[in-house]
Records
---
Amino acid sequence: DTKFTELDNKIDNVENNLNNKIDTKFTELDNKIDNVENNLNNKIENVRTELKSDIASVSNEVALVRKDMEINKMELNSQLIKITSKLESSSKLHYWMFGTVITLFVGIFLTLIFK
């Protein structure tokens, strides 16, 4: 009967040791999983921060490009206004010269007819 008790005690002892080792391994595994999760969360947060910074930088560059485009548009508009005013003034001169030439031809023609 004592041998069975000793055997039971040894079995209980082995079972307890095995349970302790299993619990220890589960605890270690949980700690490793938590560590990996924390590292992953940190990396994700770093990427988020970098992306926010990059987006802000791109937004600033887009704003600068828009301002440059507005300036170029205004410059082109002023150049177009200058060119159209020059064309208008030169076309008025051409119309005046054409009218003068026609008047001279009509005058000469009438002079030749009624002479």
---
Amino acid sequence: MASLVNSLVNALTGNSDSLCSVLADHGFQVEYPLSLSYAHDLTNYWSAACSDLHPECMVAPKNAQEMSDVITALGYTQDQFAVKSGGHSPNLGFSSTQGGLLIVTKNLDQVVYDPSTQTAVVGPGQRWEDVQGKLEGTGRAVVGGRLGGVGVGGLLLGGGLSYLSPQYGWAANNILSYEVVLANGTIVDANAEENSDLFAALKGGGSSFGVVTSYTVQTRPMDHPVWGGNYIFSGVDTAKMLAALQDFVEYYPDEKASIILTREHAPLLDIWVMFLFYNGEKPPAGIFDNFTALHPIDQTRTYDSYADLLKNGDKYILHGSRYSIAGETIPVPKDMSPEVLQSIFDFWLDVNNEVLLETGMVGTIDFQPFPRSIAQKALELGGDLLDFPPNQDYILLQITLQWTLALSDARMHDATQKLFKGFGRLITEHIANGTLPNVYRPLYMNDIGADQDYWGRLRTRNRALQTRLRYDPKGFFQTRTSGFRLS
């Protein structure tokens, strides 16, 4: 394909044609404003604010070679660009761009299962419910997203929490090989034998190192029905709910069990929504008793397939609103003072009430148990950039603010900043007074806002930086596209 690259380069350096027109002239699938495909991809974001950014055009490479040609051609321009997988990140510029080129991975949607190795090759343009659906009948599953409509690419590059994580670690720990397009357009494989430093850096390193065009993943047994769904709680005493959560984290009952506990707060809404999963037909007695004792509306059942359970969560991916996110990491010691979670919750509620009357406002806080078994499994599978210690339990916090009008953007952005800075201050105070242990607390990339310091919280940062300098010495991805940048 060198002649195509040469032709692209000659066209770009020899006249004033835009990159979009050059790519279109050379047979790439290019989408322009006013076309139906452009409009569809522009509106296919979780946060409507991302749709406010209008690229000059979009290109949808069909394979790694086309992706290589696009990246090579970008190197001969000064155009900004972004790469979009599922479009679930609400951080502006991470998978969206104003002007420049938007690379959409929707054509890189392969799911190819190899029964001899029980591995699957998965493209970044897929969504998790479809990946699992295509594995139906194999008796296997991929360790991936908990909501079926989330995209593959972004989740895996950020590490990836899964309902299966207590058994098998981060989703990224189950990746055996990456096919990557580097800043100079070279296509390489990154695995334990080839480019092993890049392989390690991609396990939680985001998009700083290259564009991944396929993932070879180890599948896991899934030849049985699974149980899960939601509990809905209304009018439940907050202290009792937080006590049930704390007990679940401190005495994690079963590695096959997984939950997310969520509080939703709006002018006419104030409920707890709990996501539950058990990797089996029914959970053993006692697993969720602390929660059932609080008398939820029970929306759980046994699902014939894991894919069907993931699709059930899609009703909580609400499109059409504007969103911001932020996250924090709480270390959980045995017999932790209930004051810790209560102080976090009370602060969250106070800040939410300050913006409660913004049009369409819904505030959400997610408490995600992160038992030490996840870090233990991660180490057994070779580790990752997040490098959580195997002897410490955590809760990963995520907050979401939802609203309708662009007029509210600045106020909601300020509230988001106030929340994550306040969480950090509260946790630091609890550490200072001995209520919490002074331990390593990395952030989970997929749950944090663009203003948070992902790399500054990683003890593996320097190792990752050396890898970035090796594979992108000129800083192509650092300067030409947005994300959690490493410099």
